[in-house]
Design brief:
Elements lengths: L1 E5 L7 H10 L4 E5 H5 L5 H10 L3 E8 L9 H19 L3 E5 L10 H17 L3 E5 L10 H11 L4 E6 H6 L15 E6 L9 H8 L10 H10 L5 E4 L4 H4 L3 H22 L16 E10 L5 H10 L3 E6 L4 E6 L2 E6 L4 H10 L2 E9 L2 H10 L18 E3 L5 E5 L8 H5 E3 L11 E12 L3 H11 L3 E2 L3 E5 L2 E9 L6 E7 L5 H8 L4 E9 L2 H10 L9 H11 L3 H9 L3 E5 L2 E7 L8 E8 L9 H9 L11
Parallel strand pairs: 1-2, 1-8, 2-3, 3-4, 4-5, 5-6, 6-7, 7-8, 9-12, 13-15, 17-21, 22-25
Antiparallel strand pairs: 9-13, 10-11, 10-16, 11-12, 14-15, 17-22, 18-20, 19-20, 20-21, 23-24, 24-25
The structure holds 3,4-dihydroxybenzoic acid (DHB) and magnesium ion.
Magnesium ion binds next to loops.
């Protein structure tokens, strides 16, 4: 499978873009005219620079407002084309993208356009060049790939072909099956882009909101399956106009782009096994049985406070690592690992971020396969030297440079707790509080990382995303998006902070990066849990009494119920599936906190309660910028 990306998709100057594109592993690049025009090197030098990066120029674009022009405009357009042909030959590319005419001067008519393309094909052929025609969704006369194909067919010239762009086809909801009957040799290149579903003007939507396949809501896979059915085996080329990407980190966006294509190719391979795209084989998306553990990096001075907090939550100290200062606290199916090592990755993570939940372990069917898939999708492998007797746990880098470990029941990893750890006598006086499992892991990140991690998780794991929800923080909006599986055994909530003043934004500033900001545990009886926690000396996050008055009004709750909720600082929500109960700890260290939830059929995450929870948590923050003890 050959992958390419248009320079317009990334930020920086042409050199920055090429560096990022080459590093991410693309084979080719579409040179967007403006990126060339604002660059100071000659076409020949640009061509050399591209090839020095190990890349091929897949096409030069766009050539605008060509077909169907009346004289004297028509002659001028052909002169303009000849100039671009000169440039392409200097640069070293043989394909130009001609997008459908948007000019008010353009005259319609398939045969007129076909004749223009036939002539352009003749001129291109003299120089060994090719012309690809793309229907813009807002083209004046041609805005549907089926019409563009009809023109290409009538042009009947070996040097004239069709360019399909998923955005233009899917944004207009054009039946993708119409692609299946196009001869593959007439498809000169495939451009791919996704986009979030927003009801707006097509041109504006296309120029500002496109994103990588899999990051948006368009059925790009259906489009691609139809393309694959033609036998097409050429480049898959990303063309992503996105305001955020233009201002983003070119390297990160390029990695996302390459991941999106590899993932798309993998899905096509599974849907159309006969496809000619030569997609590399990789293990299937990974089913997650649950979050097996979360590990904290912390120093010895602060660890007792965390351990005391965990104890009031009803966790008991279960085991100690045989060779490392690592302790496991356990309750129900939950393992919390506290790592105070002074060497190794956890120690470095502590030095950079302060106390943080820097790693999580996912229980999967085959841990090695999970890591292989992650690496095939461009994840950064994580390895760390083992002590004698330790079992290697496959891992990759995750959000904020943290670690995602994979465990399974089929390898030696099944016995890791027994092999690497020694049980410790439980001397604690606290009682278990009925916490059964990790309900969700909440990761906080910069807003512009949200799509990156969304794609990371959904391409790797058997999980889907839910729509973005706006969380109102008193100091700004935080955008929240969930990755979860159908069984509910994997739930990751991601909060993207747009500014530093929100609770999420402060967390990122205080911990010098993104990471897990809270962990939510599941109970089957929130009131019994709340009572047990109180008995353990747990102090829950105090919620404003006004909240409970409002609850009664909003949900028609009985006064007895709202009083019960209030007395335990329990938040309440309801959806069409059932009820939800939430209870919070105050923040700890750099803004980390715990949550306890009970789901009575409810499927969401209590977004409506977030403003109350955030307002309460803010009261517990240590003043911004205070050094750690
Ligand atoms: O927005 C545009 O003008 C434009 C130009 C070239 C393309 O390939 C495209 O998809 C859109
Ligand atoms: Mg396009």
């Amino acid at each position: 499978m050959k992958t390419s990306i248009a320079t317009v998709s990334l930020s920086g100057d042409l050199k920055d873009k090429l560096d990022a594109i080459a590093k991410a592993g693309f084979d080719g690049v579409e040179i967007f005219e403006n990126d060339f025009l604002v660059f100071d090197e000659s076409p020949r030098q640009v061509g050399r620079m591209v090839r020095d990066h190990g890349l091929e120029i897949t096409l030069f674009q766009p050539f605008r407002d060509f077909e169907g022009m009346p004289e004297p405009l028509r002659s001028r357009t052909f002169d303009r084309a000849e100039r671009k042909f000169d440039l392409m030959q200097e640069m070293g590319t043989d394909l130009v993208l001609v997008c459908s005419n948007v000019s008010s001067a353009a005259i319609g008519g398939l045969d007129r356009a076909a004749a223009d393309f036939h002539e352009l094909g003749d001129r291109a052929a003299k120089r060994g060049l090719k012309v690809g025609y793309e229907a813009l969704a807002w083209g004046r006369h041609i805005n549907d790939h089926r019409d563009a194909w009809e023109i290409v067919r009538r042009a009947d010239h070996p040097n004239v072909g069709l360019i399909l762009d998923s955005f233009h086809t899917l944004s207009r909801k054009i039946d993708v099956n119409s692609i299946r009957s196009i001869p593959k040799e007439k498809i000169f290149i495939i451009q791919l882009a996704d986009a979030p579903l927003i009801d707006m003007d097509l041109l504006y939507w296309s120029r500002h909101f496109r994103n990588m396949p899999g990051e948006g809501d368009l059925p790009v896979l259906d489009f691609m399956n139809a393309v694959a059915a033609t036998g097409y085996d050429g480049y898959l080329s990303l063309e992503i106009f996105n305001d955020q990407f233009r201002g983003g980190n070119a390297n990160a966006i390029a990695v996302d782009g390459r991941r999106s294509l590899v993932y798309l190719g993998d899905q096509v391979r599974r849907a159309e096994p006969e496809s000619a795209l030569a997609v590399p084989e990789m293990p299937a998306r990974v089913a997650v049985e649950g979050v097996a553990f979360v590990e904290f990096a912390i120093d010895e001075a602060e660890a007792p406070q965390l351990e005391a907090l965990i104890a009031t939550l009803g966790f008991h100290k279960a085991a100690k690592h045989k060779t490392k200062s690592v302790t496991v606290f356990r309750q129900g199916g939950i393992n919390l690992v506290v790592n105070t090592e002074r060497r190794g990755f956890a120690a470095s993570s502590y030095l950079v971020h302060g106390t943080s939940a820097y790693a999580m372990g996912l229980l999967v069917g085959d841990a090695q396969a999970a890591r292989s898939r992650a690496v095939a999708l461009g994840a950064e492998p994580f390895d760390q030297p083992l002590d004698p007797g330790e079992i290697e746990m496959p891992a990759v880098r995750g959000v904020g440079g943290g670690i995602v470990y994979f465990l399974d029941r089929k390898s030696a990893l099944a016995r890791i707790w027994d092999v690497e750890f020694e049980p410790v006598a439980d001397t604690s006086t606290v009682a278990p509080a009925g916490l059964e499992a990790i309900d969700h892991v909440a990761q906080t990140m910069q807003y512009d990382e949200l799509l990156t991690w969304l794609l990371f998780y959904t391409s790797l794991l058997e999980a889907h995303k839910t729509p973005v929800v706006d969380i109102v923080d008193p100091s700004g909006i935080v955008r929240s998006q969930v990755v979860e599986n159908a069984a509910g055994s994997l739930r990751i909530t991601m909060n993207g902070a747009e500014n530093r003043n929100t609770l999420a934004g402060r967390f990122i500033a205080e911990t010098f990066g993104s990471g897990i900001q809270h962990l939510a545990f599941r109970t089957n009886d929130i009131f019994a849990t709340a009572a047990a926690l109180s008995a353990n000396g747990f102090v829950s996050l105090a919620i404003s009494p006004n909240y409970y008055d409002d609850l009664e009004a909003r949900f028609g709750l009985e006064a007895r119920m709202s009083e019960r909720l209030r007395s335990h600082n329990i938040l309440y929500d309801r959806d069409e599936h059932g009820e939800y109960f939430q209870l919070y700890s105050p923040t700890f260290a750099e803004g980390f906190f715990f949550e306890i939830v009970e789901r009575r059929g409810y499927r969401g995450y209590g977004a409506a309660n977030a403003i109350f929870r955030i307002a309460a948590l803010r009261k517990h923050l240590r003043p911004a910028g205070m050094p750690r003890a």
